[in-house]
Amino acid sequence: MGQFDKVTIGAGQPGDFDVPVIVVFAAPDRAARRRPIGIGATVDRRVHAPAPASHDITAHGPPAHDENSDALAGAALGGPSVMSESCMAFRRSKRWRILVLGLVALAAFASLAVRSSREPVLRAAGWALVTSEPIAAADVIVLTVDSGAAGALEAADLVQEGISKRVAIFMDPPDEKEREFIRRGVPYDSDGARQIQRLRLLGVTDVVQISEVDGSEGEGLVLPQWCDEHQFGSIIVVATKDHSRRLRRVLDRAMKGHLTRITVQPARYSDFDPDQWWKTRSGIRTEIVELQKLLLDFARHPISL
Fold it and tell me: How far is CA 63 from CA 18, 50, 66, 83, in A?
């Protein structure tokens, strides 16, 4: 086995110095071991040399400038190869830190840019469902079957403003649970009946009923004939905000060839807010459902007259 011993360069005299090095002595079986020599950190440099007779090697004065001593000193003091490797590792780590900081800054900037640019897009998507038309005096105000309490409030305000004195409502057909209440003889108010009650409580006295319909397509089928029968020159149809754009297209097709002028008025008290619909779960649901219906209407009727 090879042997490992301390090598001390210098003898404590002025100008002398101690250098930690590692000397690996060759062994017959070519095995090699290492050990820190002197003071300081272990340097991973190996010099193969025959094992000396003595285990303490002391060199007085400056080290001899032979090839082995130069290698030992260069390794202990941080030779070019050791220094270059450590410098390269430091530079690589510095570059990585700079790269990570740059990516973080870029992500933060992109987040701010997306947030500032997405809100106008979301607002535009919300307002794509809403129609806006000028209001003028009309013969009658019509509430859609799904206008609800917001529609009743809008109609009452229009009556107070003098737009019209009469309000007409579409009645909704009874569903399964309502029919069961009726079969059992239990009083049950339909949505249409509750709408009439709201209007009367809001001060509207002239309320008429139109036939039962099931949705916008049904309203588009019934409304032209009803207007012709009563010879209305103009009517205002009140709907929820999210439903108004699609209803406008349905009525444009339905009223083609009829003399009655129709204005669609979005109810101001609708739950749907086109300016911030994405901030609530119900707003997101409404936007998705109504936008799908509107796009389907465009697909089925590319040109709505």
Answer: 11, 19, 9, 22
- CA pair distance 47, 23, nearest whole angstrom: 5
| Range of the structural domain that residue 207 is part of | 140-300
Q: How many domains does the chain have?
A: 2
Q: How far, in Å, CA of 26 to CA of 30, rounded?
A: 6
Q: How far apart (Å, rounded) are the C-alpha atoms in residues 224 and 254?
A: 7
Q: Is 242 exposed, middle or buried (0-12, 13-18, 19+ CB in 10 A)?
A: buried
Residues 275 and 152 in one domain: yes
- 71-102 pLDDT tens trace: 444 444 445 554 566 666 656 666 676 667 66
Q: Which of 264, 210, 199, 266 is nearest to 236 (CA)?
A: 264
Co-location of 60 and 179 in the same domain: no
| Beta strand segments in 121-251, E | 140-143, 166-171, 206-212, 234-239
Which CATH number fits the domain that encloses residue 196? Answer: 3.40.50.620
Mind listing the pLDDT tens digit for each residue in 183-237? Answer: 888 877 788 889 999 999 999 999 999 988 888 888 999 999 999 999 999 999 9
User: Is there a contact between 238 and 147 (Cβ–Cβ < 8 Å)?
Assistant: yes
